[in-house]
Amino acid sequence: MTGGSTRKLVFRVVVLAVVATMLEIVAVSQVSLFGVSADLTPLVVMSIGLLSGSITGAVVGFGIGLFLDLALVQTLGLNSLIYTVVGYGAGRLRELRDPQGAVVPIAAGAAATAIATIGYSLAQFMLGVDAPVSWLLLRDILTTIVLNTILAAPVFALIRRWLLPALPDDPQRRRRRAYTTGGLSPLSRA
Length: 190
Prior knowledge:
Arp2/3 complex 21 kDa subunit ARPC3, 7 helices, globular
């Protein structure tokens, strides 16, 4: 990547992270569906990790988590830790398996939301925060996971559309796709 394309990617990721976090705080958290509100931040971090890699995903996860903790006056660093794990995990999935299926963002969105909600609940419990632990908490966690699973594909598509002009062209990915379609295979010209 050249310096100009790196700056372009950093600019687009920072704008996306700030806008998504502000949208989460101001609008999305105020709307309740099925008794819970959607949580866009794990989906945004997962999408950036899937598109940009593990380091970018972890850095963006840390930044979004820190911004959320500061804006909502919560335990400082808790969301940062959780979203760093989400971003790094999504980025490693991209680097190790090169996921290209249409179901991958949906499954990764469900996993990211599960890690975020369960991880946050367990961390709060271990920190000794006085909160009622009941079956309602489990119901809310499962409902949030289902709601975010439904929203994962559209959120991923929007983020991909926003970041695509700044993402570097990956020659390995292009070469792999060409061989599976038969376009560049030396055996196809027999």
